[in-house]
Amino acid sequence: MNFAIGDAPAWRLDNPQAIAALVAGRHHDPFSVLGPHPASAGVVLRVLRPEAETAEAIDPDTGKTLGMLLRRHSRGFFEGLISKQKSVPRYRLRFTRADDSWEEEDAYRFPSAFGDLDLHLLGEGRHRRLYEKLGAHPMTWDGVSGTRFAVWAPNASRVSVVGAFNGWDGRRHQMRLHPAVGVWEIFVPDVGSGEFYKYEIIGAHGEMLPAKADPVGFRSEVPPATASVVHGLPRYDWGDEGWMETRSSINDRAAPISIYEVHLGSWRRREDGGYLTYDELADQLIPYVKDLGFTHIECMPVSEHPFSGSWGYQPIGLYAPTSRFGTPEDFARFVDRCHGEGVGVIIDWVPAHFPSDAHGLARFDGTALYEHADPRLGFHRDWNTLIYNFGRREVANFLAANALFWLDQYHIDALRVDAVASMLYLDYSREPGEWIPNANGGNENLEAIAFLRDTNITLFGDYPGATSIAEESTAFPGVSRPVYAGGLGFGFKWNMGWMHDTLEYIGQDPIHRRYHHDRMTFGLLYAFTENFILPLSHDEVVHGKGSLIARMPGDRWQKFANLRAYFTFMWTHPGKKLLFMGGEFAQEREWNHDWGLDWHHLDDPMHSGVRDLIRDLNTVYRGERALHELDCESGGFEWIDASNPELSTFIYLRKGSGEARPAVVVCNFTPVVREDFRIGLPRGGRWREILNSDDGKYGGSGVTNGTVDAIEEPWHGRPASATLRLPPLGALILTCET
Predict the structure, then answer these.
(1) Which residues cross the membrane (predicted)?
(2) Are 100 and 122 in a shared domain?
(3) Taking the chain, what is the end-to-end CA distance rounded to the nearest angstrom?
(4) Which among 336, 365, 418, 540 is annotated as catalytic?
(5) Beta-bridge partners for 680
(6) Structural domain total, the chain
(7) CA 451 to chain centre
(8) φ, ψ for residue 35, nearest 5 deg
(9) Which residues pair with 317 in a beta bridge?
(10) Are residues 655 and 720 in the same domain?
(11) Closest CA to 617 of 725, 731, 706
């Protein structure tokens, strides 16, 4: 039945201020006006469609008019009675303008998608799966396809979702506010996957803010474009059940963990200079890593980031794998294929700071929402970035849920947390007077510490077999110790001190190394205070530091010999291993994120020899229990002789648990062959040299030993001894055959 507008004048909205706010796109509560509302005469419908000249509600099945809507404002506000009953009928909207006519669903007829429990958990900052509620989720509601949008912006006076679907007009889809928690939401019909969108926000004081990308967006435009893309959670049929059931043993502190750190955008490029896709990376990177014997791939940040020159360490889209290389499902398939080949996946995760790009989190709702307002707490001068306010429960929830998101939705095996030291200390890289002490007067960031502990507790509790890794460069105690024991709860910690000391040593001319002998031994004083990873990361081959091979002293042959000996020392030293891409074949050029690696180096036997050494080191590391089982236990290491600085030699014993056979490592960091060099051994019998960095197959001079017989002659405080030929700038590994 049709109803003329004059039949029921009593239900007309008598609030010019509300109508003016709506048509101006500045109404704080648009759902209180727009959509169907009960009235004394039935159901009144109010609609805002700025470009329409006429509007009516129609039956969606028959197309018959339910009620004509009066144009109450020239900028497209319409109102009319659509039913004399109290219940809201099913309806669609029909609009005309000149000769054009179109139909659409009414976004304001759909109720809230948030239940009381969701709102309660969001308000308390305890919603571990907030990504299932916030963000853009394509769905079908009441038989209508569309997308539900939700965003946290508690201090905004109005939030709209904008995109091509509404002409980027913030008046069209003004959102519903849940005032108790500060979340805005709306279901927009007929918007599906692939649509670009942003949030148009008006601050508390009426200021229009730059359009914002979705903080919980699951996909983004390819940078430098900055819009979010409607996608929803990744839709992927995983095939890694076996991996997920057994990965706890692969990530264990007793396991042989050897990590290949990679920047996905510059590992290898296409011939035209373009990026490889996630699928192409899976085709090429996974077999390469598997062939070399690495157990894990660590991806530098994959979260969406606007500036490629940040290498991903200034992310804005924390919930979106970067679109530079493909879709979220493509990234999921990359992870799945890694698992199918027995390779774990670690991603770098950046909760320490975020960039100040206008479309990002900075002053998101017109206030310091995610960051601290005071720059003494909220600004990183080193990186010109903003610091999260870890003490705000919603911010901590946003970050903690993001950590779990990668484990839940993408089956990530470990998170390597970036810049932990900057999170722990309020005076990090600040002079006196430039920071604010905590409530106890100290320099510890108590809120960040609590956040890290809580996140690690949840990570290990909810995702068995997964682990976390801290890039932490200070002596903060217990970083990789359990929270119940007073620690931060990480699974592992990067050993930055070991890396700095040993690189300083190996960079010395051999004639001067005698004066720096302690650089190679000092790390053993604290090697078992944490579960350490020995990192030769991207940070060591950038910013003018040169490549690893370029930092080695001597002529070309000596440079390669030094690097081979250093790698052998690293692979036999207590601690898990991490090597940045290119190091495995001694790339000569400093890393540049805009170029692929110099793969032509592998045509040179000296470079391919280093690669072959890395392969063999990984094989020996995995195969010899003594070299990995007690990496994190003091019982797995003993010095045989560390007190020969004049000759720059180091001799040590590695042990496993139970009946694992021991391994003895001998390093000679001078270019002098040492004939008849006697070493102490834990037992007599035949010992075999299972690896020698000076082997000719690696590009060495071929000073090797094969097998040696240890006699019952005490030496170096050991019951047996044997004589060796020590290779120049070389290191070797012996195991007992008897």
Answers:
(1) none
(2) no
(3) 99
(4) 418
(5) 721
(6) 3
(7) 17
(8) 90, -175
(9) 304
(10) yes
(11) 731
Summary mean pLDDT of the chain: 96
> Domain range for residue 223?
116-229
Buried b (16+ CB within 10 A) or exposed e, 68-104: bbbbbeebbbbbbbbbeeeebbebbbbbeeeeeeeee
CB-count burial class (<10 Å; 0-12, 13-18, 19+) for 240 = middle
Whether the link from the prior residue into 224 is cis, omega within 30° of 0, is yes
User: How many residues appear in the chain?
Assistant: 738
336 noted as active-site residue: no
Cβ–Cβ under 8 Å, residues 146 and 194: no
Contact 564, 607 (CB under 8 A): no
pLDDT tens figures, 421-453: 999 999 999 999 999 999 999 999 999 999 999
Indicate the helix (H) or strand (E) that contains 652.
strand 649-654
Q: Which of 533, 405, 474 is nearest to 127 (CA)?
A: 405
Which residues are bridge partners to 724 per DSSP? Answer: 677
- Boundary of a domain, candidates 83, 105, 127: 105
Instruction: Give the pair of three-digit tokens for residue 400.
Output: 């903690």
Interior CA angle at 179 toward 174 and 183, to 5°? 60
Q: Which pLDDT band, with edges at 50, 70 and 90, does 156 fall under? A: very high
> What residue has token string 């970083």?
479
734: tokens are: 């012996």
Cα separation, 176 vs 539, whole angstroms: 46
What digits encode the pLDDT tens for the residues 116-139?
A: 999 999 999 999 999 999 999 999
Which residue type occupies 383?
W
Residues 6+ apart with CB under 8 A from 654: 572, 574, 624, 626, 627, 630, 636, 637, 662, 663, 664, 665
Q: CB under 8 Å to 256, separation ≥6 — which residues? A: 295, 621, 622, 627, 628
* Residue 304: active-site member: no
Please choose, from the candidates 563, 490, 503, the residue with its C-alpha nearest in 3D space to the C-alpha of residue 532.
490
Rounded Cα distance, 308 and 239, in Å? 32
Chosen domain end from 105, 131, 151: 105
- Any domain includes 85: yes
